[in-house]
Queue: 2 jobs
Job 1
Amino acid sequence: MDNSNSNKIFKEAKKYIPGGVNSPVRAFQSVKREAPIFVKKALGSKLWDEDNNEYIDFICSWGPMILGHNFKNVIEGVREAIENGSSYGLPTKLEVELAELIVKCCPSIEKVRLTTSGTEATMSAVRLARAYTNRNKILKFQGCYHGHSDALLVKSGSGLLTEGYQDSNGITDGVLKDTLTIQFGDIKNLEKILKTKEVACLIMEVIPANMGVIKTDINFLKSIRRICTETNTVLIFDEVITGFRISLGGAQEYYGVIPDITTIGKIIGGGYPVGAFGGKKEIMDLIAPVGRVYHAGTLSGNPISVRAGFETINYLYENKDRIYKELEIKTNYIADEIRKLIKNYKISACVNNIGSLFTIFFTNKELVENLDDALTSNISDYAKYFNIMLEEGIVIPPSQFEANFISLAHSDEDISNYLKASEKAFKIISEKI
Ligand SMILES: Cc1ncc(COP(=O)(O)O)c(C=O)c1O
């Protein structure tokens, strides 16, 4: 495969952009490539790079593109919205309609505030929880990623895991001290910590997807809900990935466990910059201008993002009975076929999948249930797998510790090509062992 144009662009990029990219995982560093591919365009399930190579895309912009790239309703809506101007700094009717749609779909959200990213949504949700409880400390699970605000970068997943570190320089000791972390699944320590009644909120990915995908036990979730209620701890479900993906009402609807605050993003912007946090009226009405918890944004509720999000969610809402079943069937099929290949080629690996998310962990473990398990993965086998897949025209996450995303646009042929490429990769990996 010719990657000369991408390689050339990356050389230039590194002169002007730190590491040549605007988000670390995009550099393809952990999969040992000279340069990432630079994308020129996308349509449906496909991407094309600057060398005109065609790929089937299993990153899907890390989640937003659940309907596939350039989905007709979204593009037509955006074209129409652009004609009316880009941003006003004043409210629009469509923001109200989007909020109404979100409230209708999400079981726990009574009121919702839009932000410009998932990071802002989680940061503001934590601030709100602190104000509501008058407590400073927060609790999170190791390996969960909630964006890049200071308080939430502690023992974080996603790019920090990929790059081999779990928190960031530049965060004060005071902030570090107030963020407590435990292993995913550790209900004993969770109860012990929350019983101190010093913790404002527990923030969690209901289905962790930033240390690879982890399947959550329903009883664990139910216990969390009970303990949070007993200790007056605000339970924040970070559904930036799982919202509108695991089901229309997110992972909370899927599991039937309801948080106090939910954060969403990605899909609700249809590929444009967005985030949101919402929850009980009683808590949400603490936000300015009603209350004294400040949240604002020049581009919050941007009309183009809102239109793209509205068209996406409206389509999901109108076709929910078909879409979520279809996505789950496709993903189950991929996961089952990969499990067969792992067995046939005697690869040390296992697959976690739920809804339209899956991760192949290159580990000896039969089940990956938390960060310690995920960290047993052989990242050089993952790098081999990634590189063979790319050569075969399949783009998967350039990191062991991320999810693959299935969209409505993935056809049977795309899935069959993905499996054929995986078989080729497993064969090569097994021969080298
Ligand atoms: C669960 C979760 N929360 C929050 C974020 C942050 O969202 P954003 O990248 O839009 O700031 C992400 C991003 O991947 C995420 O996966």
Note: The chain has two domains: 4-69+322-432, 72-318.
Job 2
Amino acid sequence: MRYAAVVCPRCARASAARADARRHQCPYCGTVFQIDQAAVIAVGSAREVREAVVRYNSNFLKPGWEPRR
Ligand SMILES: [Zn+2]
């Protein structure tokens, strides 16, 4: 099973989706979006994709970032 790290078009957080899925629901804001219309930052094993997601989302912990609602 291959996975893809995709960036939510609404809240800009990354999450892991199955690479063969067409749609994905963001676990942070609940938005459902088409994977082929979203930015894919990594593709690979579950572990590789999880690490890419953590690395990407760690940017949101920097001072000055505020979530959009
Ligand atoms: Zn989202």
Note: The radius of gyration is 12 Å.
